[in-house]
Write a structure and sequence with these properties.
Oligomer: homodimer
Largest sheet of chain A: 8 strands, mixed
Distance between the termini of chain A: 39 Å
Number of domains of chain A: 2
Chain lengths: 183, 183
């Protein structure tokens, strides 16, 4: 941020009176421009023993596989965001269930929320941000071609829970963008 | 938003190519300025059978009671944000536990996350944003003087869970800023 979005004057990065963190402050109109983490919301679309993954047609991580997920928009709920992303990325009708995982990515100011989801029919197809979408059994999950560490961690916990017959909420922190090795 | 925060030129509200929602777009440098929901993160600080509430010294809802909670900052995790808010608002050392509630407030573009917390000692005191801080038994909770619907709903679920001997994650939507009536 270089200019005030309220009045167009240059901003400075400084600690406002009564605050304890540097903020972008307008030197003309004194507006304080806070910057906060963004929510990335998605789901694990289940159909029987399979789940739906999308192969990315956009950067970052073009060509790698991911769960349908993306930035939450103003005016929607987290469940609405998760359903919308499944529709946008995979033309998939998904009934969003309980929250499965929350991952903090403080180095990139993101919080991932991934929900359980039930794929309501087989009429899925790649959206404009996907090269292909496909159902996968656990044995065929492309572990070495997953796009993001938060997705890899989510899927690991998911299959661990399925094996254990438990379904719990998973909280965790991811402090590097490097994918962790293999399965 | 009226001006581009990258170059200072006026912005227009329009749907960029390939998008489906109106965004603030710079007519000079073409930057697209997305706006997304903010996370409000807090905790229920427990000490024995009591919980710690703060009486607000700031607007909105000056003089009303709330759990320590506030906007998550860049560079921190949700648990760090919850612990920081307890320290800022109540000078309270709290060990943050599991996630207790997630409330969507789509009309004001917020998502509340409230965690369980253990108050580690009795050295609490009002921070600059609190008039007073105090421990409350369930019988003394000021139900009609709670600041926010999300806090009221969280505390209702909390005592319901305690009575039932269960502790589950509560998800919900709050679509109005009006406090719901009484207890």
């Amino acid at each position: 941020m270089k200019y005030c979005s309220d009045c167009g004057a240059p901003v400075s990065l400084r600690i406002p009176p009564g605050d304890n963190l540097p903020r972008y402050v307008c030197e003309r109109c004194q507006a304080i421009h806070y910057q906060n983490p963004k929510l990335v919301v998605g789901c694990i679309p289940e159909r029987g023993d399979e789940i739906l993954l999308c192969r990315r047609a956009i950067n970052p991580r073009y060509g790698l596989w991911t769960l349908p997920a993306g930035f939450m928009e103003n005016g929607e709920t987290t469940a609405e965001a998760a359903a919308r992303e499944a529709m946008e990325e995979a033309n998939a009708n998904v009934a969003i269930g309980s929250l499965f995982s929350l991952f903090n990515l403080p180095h990139i100011n993101q919080v991932y929320l991934i929900f359980h989801g039930q794929l309501l029919n087989a009429d899925y197809a790649p959206g404009t941000e996907s090269l292909e979408v496909a159902l996968f059994h656990e044995a065929n999950i492309p572990w070495d071609e997953l796009a993001f560490p938060a997705i890899q961690r989510t899927l690991r916990y998911y299959y661990q829970d399925r094996r254990n017959g438990t379904l719990s909420l998973h909280l965790g922190d991811i402090t590097s963008s490097a994918p962790s090795p293999g399965k």
